[in-house]
């Protein structure tokens, strides 16, 4: 019967195609060593400044890419033949279904549907085959540019905030849910000072612009101003953490978290009382910051207000009202008397105190969920992050719409901007930290493996552009802070 002969012919064609494909694969594998050897000889004959290990890695990666695309090309040819055969069969079946010819429009619809299915199959195969190679290449590049230098372990609960002093000696500060704030030697990872004056979670820490004074905000409805004096210990040689970064990422459990006091924060000097306590809020004080000059401080609270205080007298100067829900963050401009507050009401507000007689406020609406933070950059830009998984860059002169939008796969927590290089560090709920430029271009992702990186939600990031060893710090709910060295020139060159 015609149907049986057609099926036999189709089976023979399919068998021949599989045979041809297997022969092609064998030819590809047999010539692989010869091609690799030829590539190595050609590369060795060229003048290059790349180390031999880097050259070999590049050769292996590009060799894998070439083999994958060669296999995809062969499979693409076979799929095209299958499309032609399928179209012929559809045409024959269309004439015998009801004994009459189908309209050209019906045949075209059937053929188009089958073609689109095969096209989708080809796209899926391509993505699955190449994603692993591209991912490994990007991971290798990120590890070379972003290196873990030091881990700071000593808190008994999650760390909400991290900050770096603006005066010498440069030290690291962390604020934790364990009711303490700790100061650390950046080089050695040793705890230098412990502040225990709060009776609630310490939610933020910021340092005075010119003095060894810290400002902390707490769940006990207060903000404290306290003075410290530190003497840095001699740095000790440390192991290279990057030698341990070759493993693939894995899931972590709570039992992998640092235990107890870690590096022994109980051994460091303890400060038990503040110089000044700011007490005007009726709810959790979630953040605080110094205004330019350090003579005034601003606090943000879950009572839906932000307060401006005179530091010397502790008097309330202004109560900033207008948000419809709890505040989540506040930030001050580095050179001007400007304050930005963020809230769960999906907005952030800009407060202008440059003119003593006029205190203007502008409302920025652009997010669809809680605005977790908004920070200033040099110039007239504000960067905001949100639980809606976006980060937006705004021009203060035009607040109607953002000039750039970064879309991510996880909620964004307290962001920070490298002022000199205009690089945004994004901490995520999913334990990732990503770096973007101000135009929204992704630059890098900090490496995470089973031996380094954060094991739970990353809460905050902080840049320290002048420190020679670590220029980016992160903290998370895994009770540790991490110091990173970001090779910014290489990062921008990759861009």
Automatic annotation (TrEMBL):
GO CC aspect terms: cytoplasm; nucleus
Annotated compartments: Cytoplasm; Nucleus
Keyword Secreted attached: no
UniProt KW Manganese keyword: no
PROSITE patterns: WD_REPEATS_1 (PS00678), WD_REPEATS_2 (PS50082), WD_REPEATS_REGION (PS50294)
SUPFAM superfamilies associated with the record: WD40 repeat-like
Keywords: Cytoplasm, Nucleus, Repeat, WD repeat
Pfam family, one: WD40
Protein name listed in UniProt: WD repeat-containing protein 37
């Amino acid at each position: 019967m015609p149907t049986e002969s057609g099926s036999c012919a189709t089976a023979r064609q399919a068998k021949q195609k599989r045979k041809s494909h297997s022969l092609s694969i064998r030819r590809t594998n047999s010539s692989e060593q010869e091609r690799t050897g030829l590539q190595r000889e050609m590369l060795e004959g060229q003048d290059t400044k790349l180390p031999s290990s880097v050259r070999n890695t590049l050769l292996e990666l590009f060799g894998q890419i070439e083999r994958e695309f060669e296999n995809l090309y062969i499979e693409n040819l076979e799929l095209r033949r299958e499309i032609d055969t399928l179209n012929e069969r559809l045409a024959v079946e269309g004439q015998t279904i009801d004994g009459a010819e189908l309209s050209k429009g019906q045949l075209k619809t059937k053929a188009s549907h089958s073609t689109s299915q095969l096209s989708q199959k080809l796209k899926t195969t391509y993505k699955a085959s190449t994603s692993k190679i591209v991912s490994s290449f990007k991971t290798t590049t990120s590890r070379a540019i972003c290196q873990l230098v030091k881990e700071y372990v000593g808190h008994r609960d999650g760390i909400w905030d991290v900050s770096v002093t603006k005066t010498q000696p440069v030290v690291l500060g962390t604020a934790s849910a364990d009711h303490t704030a700790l100061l650390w030697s950046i080089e050695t990872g040793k705890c230098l000072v412990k502040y225990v004056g709060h009776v609630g979670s310490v939610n933020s820490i910021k340092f005075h612009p010119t003095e060894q004074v810290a400002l902390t905000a707490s769940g006990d409805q207060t903000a404290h101003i306290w003075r410290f004096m530190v003497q840095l210990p001699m740095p000790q040689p440390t192991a290279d953490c990057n030698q341990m970064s070759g493993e693939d990422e894995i899931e972590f459990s709570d039992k992998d978290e640092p235990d107890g006091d870690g590096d022994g924060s109980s051994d460091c000097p303890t400060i038990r009382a503040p110089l000044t306590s700011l007490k005007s809020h009726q709810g959790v004080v979630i953040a605080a910051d110094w205004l330019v000059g350090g003579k005034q401080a601003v606090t943000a609270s879950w009572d839906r207000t932000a307060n401006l205080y005179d530091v010397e007298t502790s008097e309330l100067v202004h109560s900033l009202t207008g948000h419809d829900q709890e505040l989540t963050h506040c930030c001050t401009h580095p050179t001007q008397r400007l304050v930005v507050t963020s809230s769960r009401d999906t907005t952030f507000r800009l407060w202008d105190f440059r003119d003593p007689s006029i205190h203007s406020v502008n409302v920025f609406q652009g997010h669809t969920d809680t605005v977790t933070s908004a920070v200033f950059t040099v110039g007239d830009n504000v960067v905001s992050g949100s639980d809606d998984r976006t980060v937006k860059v705004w021009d203060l002169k035009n607040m109607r719409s953002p000039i750039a939008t970064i879309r991510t796969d996880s909620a964004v927590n307290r962001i920070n901007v490298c002022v000199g290089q205009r690089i945004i560090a994004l901490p995520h709920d999913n334990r990732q930290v990503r770096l973007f430029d101000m135009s929204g271009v992704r630059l890098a992702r900090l490496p995470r493996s089973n031996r380094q990186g954060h094991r739970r939600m990353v809460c905050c990031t902080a840049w320290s552009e002048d420190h020679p060893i670590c220029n980016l710090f992160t903290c998370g709910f895994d009770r540790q802070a991490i110091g990173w060295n970001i090779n910014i020139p290489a990062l921008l060159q990759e861009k």
